[in-house]
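Team,

Forwarding the record for the chain on the shared tracking sheet. I've put the sequence and predicted structure together so nobody has to dig through attachments.
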Amino acid sequence: RKVILNQPVYENIVEMITVQILKWNKEDKGKKIEDRQAIIIYINTGGGDVFTGLNLCDVIKYSKTPIHGVILAYAYSMGGVIFLSTHKKYMFTNSSVLIHDGSTTLSGSSGKVKDLQKFYSKVDDRLKHAIIDNCNITSEEYDDNADREQYMLADECKEKGICDFIVGIDCSIEDVI
């Protein structure tokens, strides 16, 4: 019960991981949560599409079968948000996370751009909550750093509640295999 997110977060990889999570939840239907074998998502991605990524976060969040996230090297941008949605979070000592506001490009008529900007504001708010609801970063701290690139190594991630365990310090490598 292992999947690897080692490419940009786009439709194909998100669909593949989502289908596996749904399949394993179906296999586990009727089992107590504590009797279900955990799913492990190994993450090594620079991020990608917010829309497909937030949908994967929903699937992870609502999975009754526990999902553990393991950052192999880095989980940047949307990859970090996906990691935050997992039920148990593991990092290696030199693994890193990037939290930032992402980027977008708007084009079209003035009215269409205004409509799209309103929509993106709603999505930005959901992204913010996907982060602050799953760690110790406060709303104020998030807002203060919204225009920054927040790169963090495992020790800082643990302080901020972004990860639960640092492999080699809090747990052994056997816990992530």
